[in-house]
Write a structure and sequence with these properties.
By secondary structure, the chain is mainly beta. It has one helix at residues 3-21, and strands at 34-37, 40-47, 52-60, 66-74, 78-81, 88-89, 94-101, 107-119, 129-138, 147-150, 153-160, 165-173, 179-186, 191-194, 200-202, 207-214, 220-230, 236-246, 250-254, 257-264, 269-278, 282-289, 294-297, 303-305, 310-317, 323-333, 339-349, 356-359, 368-376, 384-385, 395-398, 406-415, 427-430.
Length: 434
Amino acid sequence: MTGSGLARYWALLLLLIIVITAPALSIDAGAQQIAVAPSRLAFGNVIVGNGQTRVLHVTNKGTRELVFSGVHVSGRGFAVSGLNSGVRLAPGQSVRLHVTFTPSAVGADRGLVSISTQVWGYHKWKAPSTVALSGSGIPRAKEEGMIVPSPAILSFGSLRAGGSKTLTETLTNNGKTSVTVSQASVSNRAFTLSGLVLPVSLNAGHSLTFSVVFAPTISGTSSGTLLVNSNASNPQLHIALSGSETALGQFTVAPATLNFGSVRAGSRASLKGILSATRSPVTVSSITTTSAEFAVSGISMPLTVAAGQSVPFTVTFSPQSSGAAAARLAFLSNAGNSLATESLSGSGVATVPHSVTLSWAASSSAGVVGYNVYRSTVSGRSYARITSSPDGNLSYTDSTVSAGQSYFYVVTAVDRTGAESTYSNQAQAVVPTP
């Protein structure tokens, strides 16, 4: 083998080693744990053409986010809804699937629900989770009564902790003979029945309406079944119930204390605060303060703060007199900690009086009886007299000045006839702040 041929051989060998020793993609088995409950659904006997619905709970028991590739159902008369391809499920999160059995012919039917998932960010699919389905289509006697529910599924959605929601359910006799509804019960204590007095008879075409109340006591998803027993052609009617409770949000105000320091009476100072919500959105309904010298701006009520988000606001301190001031700012909300507070403090400082004293040499002109003083805020023009009459003194104190302002002064001499000299040279005074 030539030298160049040997070089090609080692290059090929090195490539083979790289391919052989490259680490294979592995996924923690615990990251893909998915739980489906119940593991099988038995619909029992269902009249041909009628539908019965059951609920499946799909929970991510693993440690990583899952994504659904698809939900498939097999078997005559079975259908599934509530979960689409591409939906993601965080660790610990659950979703509901509704499986409906509507037999089209008399006889036993069997089927299967297959749920495919993969760990988000990986391209290796987990083996599908399956639930066995069974049910039988039975004929309806032409003269028998038949109970039809409306709706067939009662979904209460998500409620805040401590809340409740009421939905109505209607049972209608769509058959040709009278039926007696003898019993109704729910399989989960989070659901209760209201307005239903049994037994009750329903003539053909007549309906019965009552209420179902969902009042969860624990966070998370709740499901159950409303079972209605009667002497109709469908003697056991199953109505699926579902709902969930969302944990109360937590609300914080930061900082816990705002200290404005010393602020001159009659002026104002502003500081920023932050409102934040965690776990769930929080709605702030009102803001109160124990002192009128402190005011909130930048937000309006009611205010909803999204979970994980923050909203800034401004507190302004406007002391009306000197001395220490303190107050409490209270935010009332629907969070688990319904009242959040912020302590406010500051000191009012009395305004320091300012004045300008002018002095000048006596006029050498004969007959001068006094002097007029003029002032302007613009150099060299727009002077206004600030003495009410000629002053015989050679000095004058102006006590009507404002802090931080510049003033320009001139003086004139006045004789016995009231004649007035031209302006003296201009003097400038700058009043300090404060």
